[in-house]
Design goal:
Blueprint lengths: L61 H21 L4 H28 L3 H22 L2 H12 L6 H16 L6 H27 L3 E4 L14 E6 L11 H4 E8 L2 H10 L3 H11 L6 H18 L5 H6 L7 H34 L11 H13 L3 H5 L4 H16 L2 E4 L13 E7 L3 E11 L9 E6 L2 E2 L5 E2 L2 E8 L11 H18 L20 H9 L3 H4 L14 H12 L2 H18 L10 H12 L16 H4 L5 H18 L6 H10 L9 H9 L4 E4 L2 E4 L2 H6 L3 H9 L1
Parallel strand pairs: 6-10
Antiparallel strand pairs: 1-3, 2-3, 4-5, 5-6, 7-10, 8-9, 11-12
Helix pairs in contact: 1-2, 1-3, 2-3, 2-4, 4-5, 6-10, 8-9, 8-13, 12-20, 13-19, 15-16, 15-24, 16-17, 17-23, 20-21
Cofactor: Zn(2+)
Keywords: Hydrolase, Metal-binding, Metalloprotease, Mitochondrion, Protease, Transit peptide, Zinc
Protein name: Peptidase M3A/M3B catalytic domain-containing protein
Length: 733
């Protein structure tokens, strides 16, 4: 998931939208001379293939040939473009280059993040580096740049989508620095390589150094989460230690708590021992120390890159091509929301503090950040008599997958079918493959599911592109292929039961997958989630609503033993508990977005002390204390994946709320509703302006124009989190 829901784990779960270097934003088209390159994955006849259906990837060394072929084919197309064919053919060929390169980039990244074989991972890493170096050659190729500019000027000869592709390609070239003098261009290329390496190092440090705390005795940890922890022992102290006859008689049992985000959240939510929660919170928010320097270098490199390119800051460099258009518009939007949310967030803070006071039987108590998850869980349980185990009993994973299939069929008239994996196609026995089919349009695309946690696997939840859709000819279409990656407990066991947060995460990621699979763009450059940064999360956030609506849940949520449909009363209790601390959660997301804008903004300068900046901002923009010595931002991976773009999650929340209320809420499973969503949003990917698609979908009242940029209308979202009455009171005062 892209929106972390707990203070304990700002990087708890998120979905990953894949992006690459400026020239190739992982997008491509069709070409009359490329029909033999049609990516086709119906491999159920038992014929061996390679990873993801690519024949080259039958062995780790196949990545070398995969890169060689991509470079060879791209070079042929570069030569073709140098002959200055028609503008239509220029854009088609450019898009095929993008398709060839992105097939390597995306496959290598998915392999790096999920493959259990270290040799495959190492070869994928090498392939990623080689293709990145080739990207720099493409990004600085003046023949391609001149051809794209020619095509853009011939806009009257192109389709609207082709002209948009030409415009985007030209902008991407210029963001890569092609218009700069040689010295500056060399520096930009070096900075891009440095940034690439720093991003990898930041994420790898999080994996390598999650931190840990040893707790004795084991009784300090609730029994139902013992399975998450590593049992350890120590000798008890005493004068007769040397004369011990039996180790077993004098050993004390305890646990080593690894403070990665998932375990950290479980400890903070379920452990009554205040000192344990404090130790775990501080440790989990203090590592990896190595990322202090990595983040400093990353901020400096991104800032220098932006300034060479003529921007005041990296934030401006990132935000300008998107709906917001400027950091000033983003900051204004965030500060407006921060001011609006503060009274209600303060009320919630006082309510939690009062509950702690009563629970502890003390007149004066301090409410600390490590208290939040524990006491809010107790308050929700008390107010709505909720038991997490009872809720999970209605959500076995197999039934949840059937729910996703039902949702797709009801809304879009499409069906998912299990497809046998060919020998060599899969990267783990847990992987499933589904084909998406339409009764009139035939096959729509393919979805891999890799849903269970395992050692060495990407720790979040994400939607990975493997192949983008593109039109190959008047009669042929390259089908999109994506992989949905999650980390649910268990292995190859569809009866594993999900908590509702995990169900919501699954629906969120499914929204990303459908965005890709239902997309029918002419150019791979615009396929699926390859859209403006501050629009990309809108469909996935919309699909979260379906995980909460009883009319949807009753169709698939059934008790794993009895088959009983989930009671409506239980769902209403879940909804009530969800809304109890909505302002606190929203305030946290605003804070994250403000920190993101500040660290990559123009006023940060050369300061190395990001921790004091973050601490001051927490005091200013949240109701909670900053704990001295903690540095949550050094394990906040969104700075890597969405640097200066975290605000886009809040944009998505607001857009999705309006779409749900105006289009979906009345009849959420209506084929008419789904057809409208598909024809006005999903099928266009990034081929149309997001603002035009949003206005076309629901009409007025979804966005507004502000200082040259676009911000969401917050009315629907504010109504959901019960803020409008508070805003009206502020206006009256």
């Amino acid at each position: 998931r892209r929106l972390p829901r707990t203070a304990a784990a700002p990087n708890q779960m998120w979905t990953l939208i894949r992006r690459t270097a400026p020239f190739v934003r992982c997008k491509s088209c069709y070409s009359d001379h490329s029909t033999t390159r049609h990516f086709y994955t119906r491999t159920s006849n038992g014929v061996p293939t390679g990873l993801y259906g690519f024949d080259h990837l039958k062995s780790p060394n196949g990545f070398q040939r995969f890169v060689d072929d991509a470079i060879e084919r791209s070079s042929e197309l570069v030569n073709y473009i140098s002959e200055m064919p028609s503008s239509v053919e220029i854009i088609r060929a450019m898009d095929e280059i993008s398709d060839a390169v992105c097939s390597v980039v995306d496959s290598a990244e998915l392999c790096r993040q999920t493959h259990p074989d270290r040799e495959f991972v190492e070869e994928a890493s090498k392939a990623s580096m080689r293709i990145s170096e080739y990207l720099h050659y493409l990004n600085t190729n003046h023949t391609l740049y001149d051809a794209v500019k020619k095509a853009e000027l011939d806009g009257h000869l192109l389709s609207k989508e082709a002209h948009r592709a030409a415009n985007h390609l030209r902008i991407d070239f210029e963001k890569g620095g092609i218009h700069l003098c040689a010295d500056k261009l060399d520096r930009v290329n070096q900075l891009n390589m440095d940034i690439f390496q720093l991003c990898r190092e930041f994420n790898q440090n999080i994996i390598n150094d999650p931190g840990h705390v040893d707790i004795f005795p084991e009784s300090r940890i609730p029994k139902h989460i013992h399975h998450l922890l590593k049992p350890i022992c120590r000798l008890t102290s005493g004068p007769s230690r040397e004369s011990l006859i039996s180790w077993d008689n004098k050993k004390e049992k305890g646990f080593r708590i690894t403070t990665d985000s998932r375990i950290l959240q479980s400890i903070l939510q379920w452990t009554s021992d205040d000192e344990v929660r404090k130790m775990v919170y501080i440790q989990g928010h203090s590592v990896p120390q190595a990322n202090h320097e990595v983040l400093h270098e990353l901020i400096a490199a991104r800032n220098e890159l932006a300034q060479i390119m003529g921007y005041r800051s990296y934030a401006e460099f990132i935000v300008m091509p998107n709906m917001a258009s400027s950091p000033e518009v983003v900051k204004s939007f965030l500060l407006e929301m921060s001011k609006m949310i503060k009274p209600k967030a303060d009320e919630e803070f006082e309510a939690i503090k009062n509950f702690k006071r009563k629970s502890c039987g003390q007149k004066y108590v301090h409410l600390e950040p490590w208290d939040e998850a524990y006491y809010t869980a107790m308050m929700k349980s008390s107010a709505y008599n909720l038991d997490a185990c009872v809720v999970a009993s209605y959500f076995p994973l197999g039934q949840c997958i059937e729910g996703l299939k039902m949702l797709a069929e009801s809304l879009f008239g499409v069906t998912f079918h299990s497809v046998p994996l060919a020998p060599g196609e899969s990267w783990h026995p847990d992987v499933l493959k589904l084909s998406l089919q339409h009764p009139e349009e035939g096959e729509m695309g393919y979805l891999y599911l890799d849903l269970y946690s395992r050692a060495g696997k990407y720790t979040g939840c994400a939607n990975f592109a493997i192949k983008g859709g593109r039109r190959l000819s008047e009669t042929e279409y390259q089908l999109p292929v994506v992989a949905l990656i999650c980390n649910f407990p268990g292995s190859h066991n569809l009866s594993v039961r999900l908590n509702h947060h995990e169900v919501e995460t699954l629906f969120h990621e499914f929204g990303h997958a459908l965005h890709s699979l239902l997309s029918r763009t002419d150019y791979q450059h615009f396929s699926g989630t390859r859209v403006a940064l501050d629009f990309a999360e809108t469909p996935s956030n919309l699909f979260e609503y379906y995980a909460w609506d009883y009319r949807v849940l009753r169709r698939f949520a059934k008790h794993y033993l009895t088959g009983e449909i989930v009671p409506e009363k239980l769902v209403k209790s879940m909804q009530g508990a969800r809304d109890m601390f909505a302002a606190t959660e929203l305030q946290r997301q605003i804070f994250y977005a403000l920190v993101d804008q500040t660290l990559f903004g123009e006023r940060l300068g050369q300061t190395r002390d990001t921790s004091s900046i973050v601490a001051d901002m927490k005091r200013q923009h949240t109701s909670w204390n900053h704990v001295e010595g903690t540095h949550w931002h050094i394990r906040f991976s969104h700075f890597i994946n969405y640097g200066a773009g975290y605000y886009s999650y809040l944009y998505a929340k607001c857009f999705a709320a309006t779409i749900w209320q105006k289009l979906c809420q009345e009849d959420p499973l209506s084929l008419t509703t789904g057809t409208t969503l598909r024809t006005k949003i999903l099928q266009h990917g990034g081929a149309k302006e997001p603002a035009d698609m949003l206005n076309d979908l629901v009409g007025d009242g979804i966005l507004r124009y502000c200082n040259g940029g676009i911000v969401p209308d917050i009315t629907s979202f504010s109504d959901e989190v019960k803020l409008m009455e508070d805003k009206q009171e502020q206006i009256l005062l």
